[in-house]
Structures are given as structure tokens and as C-alpha cells.
Design brief:
secreted, 635 residues, 24 helices, 1% strand, Peroxidase, domain 2, two-stranded antiparallel ribbon, 2 strands, heme, Peroxidase, domain 1
Length: 635
């Protein structure tokens, strides 16, 4: 889900504003005076300082200020961050929208404390894992910049300040000047919980009253709400964030009447029902990489606001007045700058509150986390693995099923430690030799990937991580995007015993379901819960006794398509192949879940969450386990 209530930037020509910002004042003498009447109020707002105190608390030396790092051992850090950011945006013009969105999602949940960057520790999901945040992108850019800053100035610059500066600099790159002022001196927070996200972030489905209340809760008014919504002038959105407006707005299969009909038709062409979850559209048509006022023009003059929350801005007279003003580029830039500055000051940690984080992992380092190898001598490992896997999946459409099954069989035995890849040593058979694993395939692919990874980064990347990543990437190939997050940092196990397999796993060929066809209750009968026509088809392929090498599609006619068809044929046609499939229909809670998962988008989302949990089963990290040089043999 991609909603990004952006922030406004300062007109670069307004030198007086950048010098005299009330929000940057550190004491009474610094508070700017109105040049005409001598009153302390830069914009004629009598409650400006009171509003500031409400956001920051009492004034003291610990409030953020301009050039905070000038008086530290890292006086040039803002220039360093800008240079790195600009070099990256020059290569990827979509970064402005991505990094601005991360900053926004950070500030609206527990303030601008970089808690959005923290990886999960323990059993509680971090903010990153919350549904509205799953489509956030650009974390690797923050990782790279933090690493570079730490190498120059260790322990001085907070992640929260880096995020605020990077968001500003990425958006500013096309203008070659800073589009708004970022005061610094933030500290990093310790708490990051997915449960804190909902209710704090507006959704693309929010009505105006909800939007207004959420912004008010953060000390932001209607002017800020509208100005920050202007961030939708850059970036893209997934179909699911607005498809209801196209196909079922009021629950009657209708379209949102407030949406431009021609625009709606164009959107339907790109996002049919159901849509590919990987499909994206521009939030500001034909202008998604240009930061300008076009969003407001097409919103008020053409009814082309993409989200329901965009259209909601037209339902309030005060909001409409602001929208009309912001159709001018210079006015938009100035108002956006003011609102960004206010947003960047939400619930800050300063002084002795918070910490200066060295990396984006809370607590111990021996946990799985995103981009584990970015800080290792193999920063491009995940990209390399993806490229190799995709090239192989292009040739073999069944590779996704093979590697996913291999990963599954590995994780359910001693955890995701890649023990399923080990060959037998001595007299004790390895997991590979157990009957349920004899039909596993894809070992050669893992071997090949490991060989290429070792050639680039010897002794760095574990076989367990290669298996987890390649399984994800093989399934993801048809969608050309990662279908779930695969955290890394696993080590490889040393124990692999066939004797442990039989009590844990079962597999399929004809023998795994033939009892349902020929002798279900011991009387030569068919399982009555199995679709009769489907049972006849299965008997034709798997007579009694069947050839042990014969295989059938577990999802009839759809075994190479990763979709929700399994749930549809299970609950609507009784075509679950295994007795264990049919068993799901015998539990009311299970049936409720199955009904939900008949929708592709819901299935992809829930599958992603569960895969992430499965990939963390009993993992070895830190000093436990090893980094195997050959995935088939212990070091």
C-alpha cells in the first residue's frame, strides 16, 4: 500500500526564511521578529512558539537546530550525506519518492526517531513488518550512507538525522539546492513495534475527518495536511491501494463517481480485477519523477486524485482553498517546506533521550535482519543470487516449486540451517536420503549459485541464506519483484540425519494420496470428500498399483502459477489432493482463513508473513554454526 503524505519545501530563493525560521530558534533572542511591528512571529502566527513547545517540550540546548554538527567532530557531515544521496539519485530518479515516504512513515509513528529502520528482534514484529510499511523501499540507501558516515565520524550522527537529511536531499537533487531546511540533533529511538503503526498512519482509504484528526494528533493542521499530500506528485502506487474505487466503491460493484471517468478507464486497463500485486502506476500521471504542483492541478481541475484520501481533500472548504493556492509551484514549494519542517519535529528524542545508533538493528547483532550482507565484504550478494536464480527460473518454470519445497523441508528439520543439502558421511544417512526427501529437486541450482557466490565473496554467505533467498527469488520471478522479505544472517548446521525426517514430513507422488482413491476406509472405497470427477482423473494417472515415479499437479492445470487457485479449488470444488488438504475444511477457523485467501492479494500478503516466520525457525546465527564453503559438505 503506497500512501505518502509528503512535505513541502522552501523556495530556495527565500533567504530570509532559511535564516529566520521560528522552528529553528534556540532561545528568546533567536526568535525572529516581524520587521514591521517588532513582534516575535515570522509568519504572524501568535501561537507559533506555543505550538513548538507542544511538539518539542521546554526550550533548552537540546532542541534540534541548524548546523548542529558544525560544533561536533563531524562538521561536514551534511555535505557528505548530500553528495552521496545526489550520486545515488542521479542513477535512480525514483529515490526521492521512496526516501521521502520512509521519512514520513517514521515521523508519524512515535516521532522522527528512525524506529522505521529497526529490524525485528525477538518475537515482536518491528514497524517495518506492519502492512502499510511492507512496500517501503530505499532502506539500502540509508544503510550505505550510515556506513559511510560511521567510517568518517563514528558514533556522532544519528540515523534519525540521516533519514531526515537524505529525504530532503533526494527530493532536492533535480533543483541542485536544498528545497527545505532540516534542523538536526535528533537521537534514535529504541522501540519499533508493528502494533504502533495502525491508527497513526493515514491510509489511502481515509476520509477527510480521519485525515484531519491523524494530522492534528501530530500537531499538524489542514494547511499541513494539504501541503504534505503534495508529495503524491512523485512516486508510484500498487493497484490494491485504489482498486476499490474502480470496481467496488460502495459494495455494489460500482466505480467511485468522484473519479474522472477517462482516468478510471486507463487505471482499469493497467489494474484489472484482480490485478497483479506487482503492478504499479504513477500517483501523478506522466509526472511521477517531477516534484511540482501538478498534483493539485489534476486533483481540483480534473478529479484525477489516485487515492480515496486524495479525493477526500475536495470535501472540505478550507482544504479546497489551500489546494487552489498550491497550484502555483513557488507557493507549493514554500508551504511544503514549512510543513516538512514541522513534520520533521514531531515527538523528537534529543539530549539524553534516545541513542546514536551504529546500525539499524536493535539489541544483539546475532539476529536475522534485512540487508545483512550490506555491511559485509559482499554487499551485492542478494542481487547476485537473484540474478542467477531468475536466469535459471526463466529456463525452468518449475524451479520455484522445487526450491520452495527444498527450503520448506530444510526449515522443518532442525530449523533453516541448510542441513537438507548435506551429503551422507560415514554410515549415518543424511536428510537427503530419507524417503520423504528422495523426490526433492534443485540441489544442482543451489550448488551452482554457491559456487558463483564463493567466487565473488569467499567464506561470507551461508548456504542457508542462499537457499532462503533463491527459494524466494525463484517463486518471485514471474512477478519481477520480491514476493516476501527474506531476512539474512543464518549460519549453516553440522548435523543432518535421515532418522529425524520421517517423524516430521510427508511428500507427494501417487503413493501419497492413492489411499483416498482405492481404499479410504479399508473397504476398497473412495474418500467421499474428494470431488468424484477429480478422483476419476487421478485414477487414470495413478492406477493401483501406480508407478512410483508418476507425479501429478498438486494444483490441477495451475502447478506453475503462484496464485490463490489452490484455495478456490479446495473450498469450492473439493479438489484438495492430499488428505491433509481436505482436513483444512474440518475446522471452522481454518475455513475462515481459506475463504480470505481466495483473493490473490490477500494470499500473497499472508503467505509473505508466514514465509518470513518459517524462514526464522530455529536459525543458527552469530557464533553458532558455520559458513560452509561447499553446501554438500561440512567444513
Amino acid at each position: 500500500m503506497k500512501i505518502l503524505f509528503s512535505v513541502a519545501w522552501d523556495d530556495a530563493k527565500n533567504e530570509d526564511y532559511s535564516r529566520k525560521s521560528t522552528w529553528g530558534a534556540r532561545n528568546d533572542e533567536d526568535v525572529p521578529r516581524n520587521e514591521e511591528n517588532g513582534e516575535r512571529n515570522a509568519w504572524g502566527l501568535s501561537n507559533a512558539w506555543d505550538a513548538l513547545k507542544n511538539v518539542w517540550g521546554p526550550r533548552n540546548s537540546n532542541v534540534p537546530r541548524k548546523n548542529y554538527y558544525q560544533s561536533t567532530h563531524c562538521p561536514n557531515v551534511e555535505q557528505l550525506i548530500r553528495d552521496i544521496t545526489w550520486s545515488k539519485v542521479a542513477q535512480d530518479p525514483t529515490l526521492g519518492a521512496k526516501l521521502l515516504r520512509i521519512h514520513y512513515h517514521d515521523c508519524f509513528v512515535k516521532g522522527c526517531d528512525a524506529s522505521i529502520l529497526l529490524d525485528k528482534v525477538g518475537s515482536d514484529d518491528s514497524e517495518k513488518e506492519a502492512r502499510p510499511n511492507l512496500s517501503l523501499a530505499g532502506f539500502e540507501v540509508i544503510d550505505d550512507i550510515k556506513r559511510e558516515v560511521e567510517s568518517k565520524c563514528p558514533g556522532i550522527v544519528s540515523c534519525a538525522d540521516i533519514l531526515a537529511l537524505v529525504a530532503r536531499d533526494a527530493v532536492s537533487y533535480p533543483f541542485k539546492t536544498s528545497m527545505w531546511e532540516v534542523e538536526t540533533g535528533r537521537k534514535d529511538g529504541f522501540v519499533s513495534l508493528a502494533s504502533n503503526v495502525n491508527g497513526n498512519l493515514p491510509s489511502p482509504f481515509s476520509d477527510f475527518a480521519t485525515l484531519k484528526q491523524i494530522f492534528a494528533n501530530k500537531g499538524l493542521n489542514v494547511d499541513d495536511l494539504v501541503a504534505l499530500s503534495g508529495a503524491h506528485t512523485i512516486g508510484v502506487a500498487h493497484c490494491g491501494a485504489f482498486s476499490r474505487r474502480l470496481f467496488n466503491f460502495s459494495g455494489k460493484g460500482d466505480m467511485d463517481p468522484s473519479l474522472n471517468a477517462t482516468y478510471a478507464k486507463d487505471l482499469k486497463d493497467v489494474c484489472p480485477n484482480p490485478a497483479n500485486p506487482a503492478t504499479i502506476v504513477e500517483m501523478d500521471p506522466m509526472s511521477s519523477t517531477s516534484f511540482d504542483s501538478n498534483y493539485f492541478n489534476i486533483l481540483i481541475n480534473q478529479n484525477k486524485g489516485l487515492f480515496q484520501s486524495d479525493a477526500a481533500l475536495l470535501n472540505d472548504k478550507d482544504s479546497v482553498i489551500v489546494i487552489k493556492k498550491l497550484q502555483d509551484d513557488n507557493t507549493f514549494f514554500s508551504e511544503f517546506a514549512k510543513s516538512m519542517k514541522k513534520m520533521g519535529a514531531i515527538e523528537l528524542l534529543t539530549g539524553n533521550a534516545g541513542e546514536i545508533r551504529k546500525n539499524f538493528v536493535a539489541g544483539a547483532r546475532n539476529v536475522l535482519r534485512n540487508n545483512f550482507y550490506k555491511s559485509a565484504p559482499c554487499p551485492n550478494a542478494e542481487q547476485l543470487i537473484r540474478d542467477i536464480t531468475w536466469s535459471k527460473a526463466k529456463i525452468d518454470v518449475k524451479l520455484g516449486a522445487r526450491l520452495l519445497r527444498l527450503h520448506y523441508h530444510d526449515c522443518f528439520l532442525r530449523g533453516c540451517d541448510e542441513s537438507v543439502l548435506l551429503d551422507t558421511e560415514g554410515t549415518e544417512q543424511s536428510e537427503k536420503e530419507a524417503v520423504p526427501n528422495l523426490s526433492l529437486g534443485g540441489f544442482d541450482v543451489i550448488d551452482d549459485i554457491k559456487k558463483q557466490v564463493e567466487a565473488k565473496c569467499p567464506g561470507i554467505v551461508s548456504c542457508a541464506d542462499i537457499l532462503a533467498l533463491s527459494a524466494r527469488d525463484a517463486v518471485s520471478f514471474p512477478f519481477k519483484t520480491s514476493m516476501w522479505g527474506a531476512e539474512t544472517g543464518r549460519k549453516d548446521g553440522n548435523v543432518s540425519l535421515a532418522s529425524e525426517v520421517l517423524i516430521q514430513l510427508v511428500v507427494a507422488h501417487c503413493g501419497t494420496f492413492s489411499k483416498r482413491l482405492f481404499n479410504f476406509s479399508g473397504k476398497g472405497d473412495i474418500d467421499p470428500s474428494l470431488n468424484a470427477t477429480y478422483a476419476k482423473d487421478l485414477k487414470d494417472v495413478c492406477p493401483n498399483p501406480a508407478n512410483p515415479a508418476t507425479i501429478v499437479d498438486m494444483d490441477p492445470l495451475s502447478s506453475t502459477s503462484f496464485d490463490s487457485n489452490y484455495f478456490n479449488i479446495l473450498i469450492n470444488q473439493n479438489k484438495g489432493l492430499f488428505q491433509s488438504d481436505a482436513a483444512f475444511l474440518n475446522d471452522k477457523d481454518s475455513v475462515i482463513v481459506i475463504k480470505k485467501l481466495q483473493d490473490d492479494n490477500t494470499f500473497f500478503f499472508e503467505f509473505a508473513k508466514s514465509m518470513k516466520k518459517m524462514g526464522a525457525i530455529e536459525v543458527l546465527t552469530g557464533n553458532a554454526g558455520q559458513i560452509r564453503k561447499n553446501c554438500r559438505v561440512k567444513n
